[in-house]
């Protein structure tokens, strides 16, 4: 079953990413990205990260992507024009991207024996649930970073308000 | 050899005091009042003179060492070669030091009066002190390298002083010419030093000469090469053929400079060097022959030219070249003591002649052409009488100084078997007498040809604007005075009188045994020229009669020269002009110095200039050097214009480069670790 | 429960998503789409972290993902605010016209 899950939702994720790439209108790209995130949530769950799967759905695709869609609609972004722009991006960038992909897959494939395989619902240990596991680390050892991130979000809010404000 | 108990460190003061004078006058002299500049310069010359006097007393005392040495820290110390700052004083050095500091001090006093109203007064004394420093170093040096320092330094001082009136083109060119021609000689000196280092492994005099002395069979070969190269150096410094051309032009400098540097001291450095290296030269008869021939040839050649010059200083310049030829001749036949003796007397009378000529020029407000002089003996009597002493001395008429030294040289030349050289020397003596008395008659006797004219100066100035070497830097055109012929102030006449006395009695220290004297100079220099040359060895045996006979002949010749000059220039003043008119081409040839300068210019200077301009300046400087610079700049510019393209402002291109960079970092991280770990 | 999926498969999937994100970043001309491709890249990295957390049986990978999400949220907020500001002055969302920084 895990294999089926992985294949279906993996393919879905890749398809969504490709669609993001190929679509001309940004709203289509945004919706494809939502699909990608949803599939990734399933994959997280299959890897035993239940809390993250939920967070992915709620925060990432539920908040951030909605935010993206809001902005697209606010700015009334239309279809992309074909401008030539930069050649360097194609000449230099594509080989770079391809190189990154090849390097990464080379490493992963060559070490695949060492990685082992996954268990569906493979949990970290049999005693506690994933969420209590995460929260016990987050609120004890990493309490300070946790609080700092809340400050970070506060700063981001302020920044966003200031930047996006209409000039009077 | 130096006694351990006595400390001779005060020898360092002899060069260092003038150097201090140079530093003081050279840096702040511009701001100091004239009196202070003079005081500094004179003190820094007087004290060394006093020290030298003390040295004389010390070393003439019974039981005094023949040589004293002062050694300092090592200067250069590398494997195979050690050179120290070391001074040595033997009897030869004593005579040279006496000339340098004594005559130098007198000329400093004279200059205080002569240059009194010159712009750049402080500069003059700074350079003069610098010259004293270098000359002392040259004479005191214990090694070839230190002597070379002095050698080059006096060349530098000479250049600075010849070009003292630097605003005049002719003076600047003369300075350049002197320096460049000297350089040719210095090149020979340098090559000789290289050979010496290679052959002996040291540049110290004692080391080198000991190495030669302990090997009595060593002749010729590399020693001849070294000797010939040293001769080249001496020829440049002492203005012999073919490198004499700078000395007549050097008369562009102020007259005290001509007196000190180009008569008494610097030009004698070559002679001194040959005498110092007599051990080396003694082993190379070939080199000695070259020296003798060059000396004799120069003597007669310069005398020829001197006979028809009109400028009073030019006559004296060619006379100097000629007399230096005599000294060279003496060294060439092995009579080093005679050469040094003539150096000594020459310093007295030639300095006197130049200073007196300066007095004459000053009296006439800058006139140097003898055709515009005449009848001055009533107007400037003291100058007249002192100059007379000098003229008689140089002509070799007894009992004046020049007779004994010149006669000694001629006798040694004859006795060494070179009868032809003796004859050349004799003829030159006649010519010397002739042109000196010509100068004497034209300047002081006969009708007055000079104009008492209005000239541009302020009354009381000692020097005035006019042609030749007597230019004032700032002319004041508003004041016009009629200016009569006047005697120089006593600050200038004092040294003249002293030198005149020395020109009379100076030769009496060298009266040979044949004439009833003791030849003190010769004996004084015996410890230096320890191994008697063949010439000296035979003189002991040869009869005094030969010496007296030869002396008699040379006196006759000298008096003959006087007689001819008397008839040409006093009794029948037009004779010379008539003779000249009869062979105009020959006369013009000699008057134009045999066109030697023009020949040099065409043969050497012009090709060099063309080579420099076309090849060195055009090709190498323009092409290679400029090209390299342009290439460096162009490459940078090209590369940077390529790199600049990255800064396009376009986000996507930045992203492209980012991706590439990230891939590279990944690559290094993945595969670099193994390389690094190894 | 039959076939088990090797961890390497998840990692390769993440690499694929990451590369597609880079490509999209290079190709797309709309500012917002470019921004979205950044989010795609971040997600791919998240997947890698989770996979490794599963492999090592440690929770720190997931904690990392948690913080990445937080930061991504903040970044998205500020970034989109900037985009709005740019749109106000330039009237366009074309990436190529935002090139005032060129030398």
Account of the protein in words:
The complex is a heterotrimer of chains A (about 170), B (about 675) and C (about 100). Chain A is mainly α and about 170 residues long. Chain A has seven helices and no strands. Chain B is mainly alpha-helical and about 675 residues long. In chain B, strands 1-2 form a two-stranded antiparallel sheet. A two-stranded antiparallel sheet of chain B has the order 3-4. Chain C has about 100 residues and is mostly helical. In chain C, about 75% of the residues lie in helices and about 0% in strands. Chain C contains three helices and no strands. Chain C starts with 6 loop residues before the first helix and ends in a 13-residue tail after the last helix. The mean pLDDT of chain C is about 90. Classes of the chains: A mainly alpha (about 170), B mainly alpha (about 675), C mainly alpha (about 100). The interface between B and C is small, with 10 and 12 residues.
Multimeric status of the protein: heterotrimer
In terms of structural class, how would the helical and strand content of chain B be classed? mainly alpha
* Biggest sheet details of chain A: none
What radius of gyration of chain A results from the CA coordinates? Answer: 20 Å
Distance between the termini of chain A: 59 Å
Q: Kindly report the average pLDDT value of chain B.
A: 83
Largest sheet of chain B: 2 strands, antiparallel
Q: Layout of helices and strands, plus pairs?
A:
The complex is a heterotrimer of chains A (168), B (678) and C (103).
Chain A: H1 2-22, H2 26-46, H3 50-75, H4 88-110, H5 112-115, H6 130-141, H7 143-164
Helix pairs in contact in A: 1-2, 2-3
Chain B: H1 13-28, H2 34-60, E1 68-78, E2 81-89, H3 91-114, H4 121-140, H5 144-162, H6 169-200, H7 205-213, H8 222-237, H9 246-249, H10 255-264, H11 269-276, H12 278-282, H13 285-306, H14 312-332, H15 336-363, H16 381-395, H17 401-415, H18 419-444, E3 454-456, E4 480-482, H19 490-505, H20 520-524, H21 534-541, H22 544-571, H23 575-582, H24 584-591, H25 596-644, H26 651-677
Antiparallel strand pairs in B: 1-2, 3-4
Helix pairs in contact in B: 1-2, 1-4, 2-3, 2-4, 3-4, 3-10, 3-15, 3-19, 4-5, 5-6, 5-10, 6-8, 8-11, 8-13, 10-15, 13-14, 13-18, 14-15, 14-17, 14-18, 15-16, 15-17, 15-19, 16-18, 16-19, 17-18, 17-22, 18-22
Chain C: H1 7-27, H2 31-56, H3 60-90
């Amino acid at each position: 079953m895990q294999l089926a899950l992985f294949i279906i939702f993996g393919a879905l994720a890749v398809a969504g990413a490709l669609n993001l790439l190929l679509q001309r209108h940004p709203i289509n790209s945004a919706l494809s990205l939502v699909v990608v995130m949803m599939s990734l949530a399933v994959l997280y769950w299959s890897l035993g990260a239940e809390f993250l799967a939920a967070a992915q759905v709620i925060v990432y695709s539920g908040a951030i992507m909605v935010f993206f869609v809001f902005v697209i609609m606010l700015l009334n972004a239309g279809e992309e024009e074909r401008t030539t722009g930069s050649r360097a991006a194609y000449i230099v960038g594509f080989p770079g991207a391809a190189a990154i992909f090849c390097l990464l897959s080379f490493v992963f494939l060559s070490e695949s024996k060492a990685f082992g395989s996954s268990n569906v619902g493979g949990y970290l240990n049999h005693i506690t649930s994933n969420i209590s596991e995460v929260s016990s680390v987050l609120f004890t050892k990493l309490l300070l970073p946790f609080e700092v991130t809340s400050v970070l979000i506060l700063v981001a809010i302020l920044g966003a308000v200031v930047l996006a404000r209409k000039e009077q | 050899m130096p006694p351990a108990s006595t400390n001779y460190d005060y020898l360092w003061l002899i060069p260092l005091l003038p150097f201090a004078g140079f530093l003081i006058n050279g840096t702040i002299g511009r701001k100091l009042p004239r009196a202070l500049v003079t005081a500094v310069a004179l003190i820094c010359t007087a004290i060394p003179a006093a020290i030298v006097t003390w040295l004389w007393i010390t070393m003439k005392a019974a039981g005094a060492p023949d040589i004293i040495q002062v050694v300092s820290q090592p200067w250069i110390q590398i494997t195979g070669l050690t050179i120290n700052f070391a001074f040595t004083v033997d009897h030869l050095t004593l005579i040279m030091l006496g000339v340098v500091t004594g005559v130098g001090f007198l000329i400093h006093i004279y200059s205080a009066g002569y240059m009194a109203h010159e712009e750049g007064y402080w500069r003059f004394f700074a350079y003069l002190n610098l010259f004293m420093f270098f000359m002392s170093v040259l004479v005191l040096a214990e090694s070839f390298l230190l002597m070379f320092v002095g050698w080059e330094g006096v060349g530098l001082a000479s250049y600075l002083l010849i070009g003292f009136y630097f605003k005049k083109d002719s003076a600047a060119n003369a300075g350049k010419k002197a320096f460049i021609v000297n350089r040719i000689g210095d090149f020979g000196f340098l090559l000789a030093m290289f050979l010496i280092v290679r052959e002996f492994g040291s540049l110290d005099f004692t080391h080198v000469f000991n190495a030669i002395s302990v090997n009595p069979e060593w002749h010729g070969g590399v020693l001849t090469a070294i000797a010939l190269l040293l001769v080249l150096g001496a020829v440049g410094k002492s203005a012999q053929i073919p490198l004499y051309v700078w000395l007549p032009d050097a008369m562009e400098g102020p007259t005290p400079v001509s007196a000190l540097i180009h008569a008494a001291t610097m030009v004698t450095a070559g002679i001194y060097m040959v005498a110092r290296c007599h051990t080396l030269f003694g082993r190379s008869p070939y080199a000695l022959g070259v020296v003798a021939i060059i000396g004799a040839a120069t003597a007669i050649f310069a005398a020829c030219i001197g006979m028809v010059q009109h400028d009073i200083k030019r006559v004296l310049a060619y006379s100097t070249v000629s007399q230096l030829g005599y000294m060279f001749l003496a060294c060439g036949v092995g009579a080093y003591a005679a050469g040094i003796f003539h150096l000594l007397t020459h310093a007295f009378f030639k300095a006197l002649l130049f200073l007196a000529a300066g007095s004459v020029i000053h009296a006439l407000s800058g006139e140097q052409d003898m055709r515009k002089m005449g009848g001055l003996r009533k107007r400037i009597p003291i100058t007249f009488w002192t100059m007379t002493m000098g003229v008689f001395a140089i002509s070799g008429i007894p009992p004046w100084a020049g007779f004994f030294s010149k006669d000694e040289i001629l006798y040694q030349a004859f006795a060494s078997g070179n009868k032809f050289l003796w004859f050349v020397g004799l003829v030159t003596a006649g010519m010397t007498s002739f042109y000196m008395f010509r100068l004497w008659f034209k300047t002081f006797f006969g009708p007055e040809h000079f104009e008492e004219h209005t000239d541009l100066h302020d009354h009381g100035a000692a020097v005035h604007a006019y042609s030749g070497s007597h230019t004032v830097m700032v002319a004041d055109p508003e004041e016009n005075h009629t200016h009569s012929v006047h005697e120089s102030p006593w600050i200038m006449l004092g040294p003249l009188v002293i030198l005149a006395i020395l020109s009379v009695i100076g030769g009496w220290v060298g009266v040979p045994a044949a004439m009833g004297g003791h030849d003190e100079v010769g004996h004084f220099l015996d410890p230096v020229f320890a191994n008697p040359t063949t010439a000296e060895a035979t003189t002991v045996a040869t009869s005094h009669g030969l010496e007296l006979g030869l002396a008699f002949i040379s006196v006759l010749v000298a008096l003959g020269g006087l007689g001819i000059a008397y008839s040409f220039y006093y009794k029948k003043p037009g004779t010379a002009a008539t003779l000249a008119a009869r062979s105009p081409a020959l006369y013009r040839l000699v008057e134009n110095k045999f066109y030697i300068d023009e020949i040099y210019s065409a043969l050497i200077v012009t090709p060099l200039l063309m080579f420099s301009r076309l090849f060195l300046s055009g090709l190498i400087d323009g092409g290679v050097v400029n090209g390299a610079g342009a290439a460096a700049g162009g490459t940078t510019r090209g590369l940077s214009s390529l790199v600049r393209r990255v800064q396009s402002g376009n986000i996507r291109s930045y992203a492209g480069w980012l991706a590439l960079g990230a891939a590279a970092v990944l690559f290094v991280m993945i595969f670099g670790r193994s390389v690094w770990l190894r | 429960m039959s076939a088990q999926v090797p961890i390497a498969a998840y990692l390769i999937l993440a690499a694929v998503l990451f590369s597609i994100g880079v490509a999209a970043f290079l190709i797309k001309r709309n500012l917002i789409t470019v921004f979205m491709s950044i989010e795609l890249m971040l997600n791919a990295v998240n997947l890698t972290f989770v996979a490794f957390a599963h492999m090592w049986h440690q929770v720190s990978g997931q904690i990392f993902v948690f913080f990445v999400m937080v930061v991504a949220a903040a970044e998205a907020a500020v970034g989109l605010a900037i985009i709005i500001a740019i749109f106000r002055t330039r009237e366009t969302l074309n990436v190529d016209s935002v090139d005032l920084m060129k030398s």
